[in-house]
Amino acid sequence: MPGHDEKLSAACRRLLLHLAGEEEAFARVTADEPGHVTLYLRRGKTTLGAGRVAVAAAERLVAEDLACWERPPRGCRLLVATGAGRARAARLCAGGGTEGFLAQHREIVEAVEKQPAGGETRRLRVNAAESPLQFLARRRGRGGRPLIDAAGLEAGERLRRDITMGQILPSVTSRWDPVGGQGAGNLRDPASASDAVIAARQRVQRALKAVGPEFADLLLDVCGFLKGLETVERERGWPARSAKLVLGMALARLAEHYGLAVEARGPVRARTTRLWREEGAAARI
Question: Cα–Cα distance between 154 and 148 in angstroms, integer?
Answer without folding.
Answer: 10
